[in-house]
Amino acid sequence: MGIHRLPEGLSQKIAAGEVIERPLSVVKELIENSIDAGAKKIEVELVQGGKVLISVKDDGCGILPDELPLAVEKHATSKISTEEDLEAIATLGYRGEALASVCAVSHFEIYSRQAGQPEGAVLHYENGVPKVTSVPLRPGTTVVVKDLFYNLPARRKFMKTPAAEFRRIFRLIQDYAFAYPQIAFTLIHGGRSAFASSGSGSVEKLLSAIWGDEPKVRGSESKAPGSGVRLWWQDLGPQSRLQLISFVNGRRVSDAVIRSAITSFNWAGRGNWLVMITLPPEDVDVNVHPAKSEILFRHSSEVYDLIHRTAEGLARGFSEIPVLPSGPENSGHWKSEAENFNVRPQQPVSAGGGFHKDGSEVHLFGRVEPPLFRASSPAVEAAKRPENSERLPITSYRNIGSAASQQQLTAEDADGRCYLGQLPQGYLVFSDNEGLLIVDPHAAHERINYEKILKSCSGTNAQQGLIMPVSLPPTLREAALFHKKELAELNFVVNDDGSLSMLPMNPQAAGLNPVELLRSAVSAIEEHKDQSDSLLKVFATKACKASVKLTTRLVPAEALRLLQELEACDQPNACPHGRPTVLKLTKAALDKHFGRLGL
């Protein structure tokens, strides 16, 4: 095939595909046009998540009837006129591509009237030709988009379900409501109101309404000549993911510099973040991405420092900033004062012991080979026998003065293994006929708890009703209702009002409260989509924080019981995070080390 020019209609569709990816893209472009037009009220209406209908209505400055046909031509705009204007773009739109792109892939109409005009006009298409008709209208503009991608079936196949497309748009509208609190946003879906902001001008009131007041939302602000940063943070606990909303000069963006400055603090990479940055327009290049979602900073290091300094101001509101403590016992874990971060302290459960704040993202089931315990070990069979159910439970790890520690303690079990003691570093030392066993009590207890929780969650009748339904925070309520079907398959029951009434297990067995357990489940669903099995692994692993610390001193009977329960586990050789639980030194290895082989 030789080189040839593409038909104009085909080239328009290709260009439109760069700008318009899904219904979300259409809504974003249209509400940015409304903001540029000075609107004080913006109403978005959707049918089937925007796949059938998108309507965006505003009370902005409007368009003259004679300019309506020009408004849908490519590279026609009222926002820039010279090359110099590209050096300092102060509006959200400027390319003149959005309306032309939307028009190329949908059935499209514009209704508009300027305040000084006696009547308005509507632009629609007849046989592919734009036609303008005079109609009585209120001042402002309404853009109606029907049957998005009707002429691009391949693109239409890639759209998600109406519920998924709606949720993306719902979050977009909320984000713009944060950035423009003086504008009243309304979102209607399927004829029902889904979201409305008052336009009162208060970001804090919106955050309270959307994020909720529990935990508390913290804010910080820094200013420099011509620049400024405002931050808001809601800490949802060390188990939560980072949810970052960032705006630069009122433009919603995703930028590595902003994310890096926030996550440079070891306590900041979690929870809800809202970042508002103001910079001189000439210091920001917005012309680097078709959808204008990425930008370049002229002085990125200065922007990083400004954000970092503002986050430090946020941190100064805490009486103590969490740090990663040194020492192998805390590898991969946070250590902080719970009250400083609005994290409710966990209560001891039947497994007892101290609590870790697991702040690391690690892979489950790291392999430890070769196996240290035999499947047919006498200890495994003994631990499974009914008579062993009355053995000393592992309940007194933090209270050596408990009733258990008052009993007559033995340093040897029925299988002839002897507990020799606990090293100053916390490791437990045992001897048996084959040599020595050195056990990490925290890793061992994590494995024991993990398998108990996993079995509890995966049982056919594993479900725990709550005495009273638990009211959920606004952002979690939205996600829980959206994933209601997937949660029901895992024995969570979320009511239509967004409250939680049923759990797949007793939350105390996992060391989590019901809201934290649900949040872990929702996070896992969103991370792993169709892999529901991984959900059990995710929140069971998070529940392993209810395990003894390496520094906890154990009495002999407790140490032996810990070893017996570890041997009874399906995978006793590693904790859920992949760390080894046991180091085995055989007699042969000891003889070789001391040069006693053959003696």
Report on this structure.
The strands form five sheets. The chain has an eight-stranded mixed β-sheet, covered by helices on one side. The protein is elongated and about 105 Å long. Among the domains are: 8-192, 2-Layer Sandwich (Heat Shock Protein 90), CATH 3.30.565; 211-315, 2-Layer Sandwich (Ribosomal Protein S5, domain 2); 463-503 and 512-545, 2-Layer Sandwich (Ribosomal Protein S8, Chain: A, domain 1), CATH 3.30.1370.100. Strand 17 and strand 18 form a beta hairpin. Helix 12 packs across helix 18 and helix 16 packs across helix 17 (532-542). By secondary structure, it is an alpha+beta fold. It is 31% helix and 21% strand. The protein has 19 helices and 22 strands. The longest helix has 18 residues, at 162-179. The N and C termini lie far apart (85 Å).
Task: Record the strand order, biggest sheet.
Answer: 5-4-3-6-2-1-7-8
User: What is the CATH C-level name of the domain at 8-192?
Assistant: Alpha Beta
Helical fraction: 25-40%
Number of helices: 19
How many strands appear in the DSSP assignment? 22
Largest sheet geometry: 8 strands, mixed
What would CATH call the architecture of the domain at 8-192? 2-Layer Sandwich
How widely separated are the two ends?
85 Å
Please identify the structural class as seen in this structure.
alpha+beta
CATH level-3 fold name of the domain at 8-192 = Heat Shock Protein 90
User: Are there runs of 5+ residues with pLDDT below 50, and where?
Assistant: 318-410
